[in-house]
Amino acid sequence: MKKxxxxxxxxxxxxxxxxxxxxxxxxxxPKGSMTMVDAMRSGEIKQAxxxxxxxxxxxxxxxxxxxxxxxxxxxSSFIGxxxxxxxxxxxxKDMVEAGLTPVLIRSKLSPTGTAVALVTPDSERTxxxxxxxxxxxxxxxxxxxxxxxxxxxxLEGYLIFNLPLVEQACRLAKENHMxxxxxLASFNVVxxxxxxxxxxxxxxxxxxxxxxxxxxxxxxxxxxxxxxEISKRCEIAVVKTGPDGSWIKRGDEVVKVEAxxxxxxxxxxxxxxxxxGFLYGFSxxxxxxxxxxxxxxxxxxxxxxxxxxxxxxxxxxxxxLIREIAEE
Length: 328
Hints:
There is one protein chain. The protein has a single domain, classed as UDP-N-acetylmuramoyl-L-alanine:D-glutamate ligase (3-Layer(aba) Sandwich). It contains 13 helices and 14 strands. It has helices at residues 22-26, 39-48, 61-71, 86-97, 144-147, 163-175, 187-192, 194-203, 212-219, 223-231, 270-283, 288-302, 312-326, and strands at residues 4-7, 11-17, 34-36, 54-59, 76-83, 103-107, 112-119, 125-132, 152-156, 179-183, 207-211, 236-240, 246-250, 253-257. The strands form two sheets. The chain has a nine-stranded mixed β-sheet, with helices on both faces. It has a five-stranded mixed β-sheet with strand order 3-8-7-2-4.
């Protein structure tokens, strides 16, 4: 089994069910997107949703993926930066309990970042993210020792705002002969940072994960055409199309994967857990179609619950399905 290390914004997810889109409109949050907010705006949003049902979980896009991989038994690590506060302690404890070996650098200046996820009645989630300490992770803090004995580096696209950090991570990965996988993160991030994405993709990336909107932002094309275009620039291209499943392409090999039939409650974490399932299969040498099916299973199961964390019974269901497919 290949070992995987992820790097991302270490954030505590604050999952909140809202009755309508009033809060999104009030704070100018584009539905379905991730919007960066400052400390003041983050506080205003938290105040506005005070009293609504919410849950906490260690998160951030790559954090969710690595949590999933740890739970699936893959030897995994996660590099991030948190504050010297209770949320930072919570984050580390949550990761360790999932079986990961986290490398969490502590900020002396800022609190642990939070991602407030507003879940509307249609199950769509909209993030208002205050990165806090996560923004302070610097390229020079990435040590070569962190990457030794790992085979795959997984990066969340949100890190692209700190291009030197991403470049350093990719350089250290390639010096260690690692495969680099990148998730494009969010369509508005791709729109804002397209030249930086182009540079990283063309110089370092082997696997790209994108949903339909991210793929369009990156290529200007629909999902199937975007798959072809992205596959020209990396070894494996993955375009996720929600309830229509996903498309995967490696060279001339094209695979269409069906989505798991589920009762959707909240789409938070679906893309992150798809990547976890796919990389679980990839790290164990499974075929592309099985990698995609594993991704669909984890994505499908997580959208049946609120937030990016599945309860034990959902993990048991997912693992059972994955074992059955693995044995076929």
